[in-house]
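Data deposition worksheet. Section B asks for the primary sequence of the deposited chain exactly as it was used as input, without tags or linkers unless they were present during the calculation. Section C holds the resulting structure in token form. Section D is free text for depositor observations; keep each observation to a single sentence. Incomplete worksheets are returned to the depositor.
Section A, Depositor: J.P.
Section B:
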Amino acid sequence: MISKDDLFQQWVAEQLELEQVDLQAVSGDASFRHYFRVTLPELNPKLEADFGKSQTVIAVDSPPEKEKNQEFLRIARCLVDHGFNAPVIKAVNEKQGFMLLSDLGDRPMLPELDTHTVEQHYAVAMGTLCALQKQIKPTALALPHYDHQRLMDEMALFPGWFIRCHLGCSLHLDQQKGLHDACELLAQSALAQPQVFVHRDYHSRNIMLLDNNQQGLIDFQDAVWGPITYDLVSLLRDSYVRWPREKSLVWAAEYFHQAKAEGLLPEGYQEKDFLKQFEWMGAQRHLKVVGIFSRLKHRDDKPVYLDDIPCTYANLLEVCAAYEELAGLHGLLKELARALVVKTPSAAELLEPLI
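Section C:
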């Protein structure tokens, strides 16, 4: 019986009308998908007609029972139709979860972010984000809503996977209630915002740098209709790179004025309210992300994401320290941070000044 790997390689070769293909693994993400780059032979008019002048194509093995393949395909086609740089679907075997996609290259933003490049890269990314929120409407793309239950379920990953499973700690009843009440505040803040297209993973590992100062979008299959600040938080309060809080607030204010000029914000919506909602959205996302990184380690045997918890946690501590309404959550987070430093001593340099 032919193996799944052999079946995949055979399918790719058939789509490209080649006898065999050399699949070069591309670094993946936290999912069950596997990506491969295929270099196309030269001087093949058929391939050029299908794939343009690009010399490479991306082959994807994405198990349909584990991944949102239908959502990915539908959203990718919508983004491309609206002029965004998303992968173009070249061929699909929906039953097996095989895909051939146009190649957006191998330059994620993250390795090229530094104090000299960040202003330019973020300016382009915020411009793209504003265009996404303006152009992608419910009439163009049916998506689930980032409702109250989804927001609360995400934050529940924090006590379940980080506190109990990763730290081995437990909360007494008052702490449980305090955490729940804080999460409710964050959820209500998110729901009060203008609702727009939300990529949900709009950060430096999922934004590809292209030629001519263009950027490409990947990993958007979890998109929803949700809070206008969510993707902005993903970008400016990234889990993989850390900037001063004051700087991220300057960038967020710039985005506020850009979104206002594009008619994305209601009349009377004030910058101070936008920035508060931006920061509280960050707290919601960071609670979720710390829980997800812990789950990736303890459920999925992917411990590498534990290295990104301290950066995410530091952002969380800073935000909660700035708002009286989140003082109770801040106190709990400081207590847990001490347990995290004991478990992961390398986190001390980043976290100890904040606790």
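Section D:
The CA atoms of residues 108 and 205 lie 5 Å apart.
The first strand starts at residue 24 and ends at 26.
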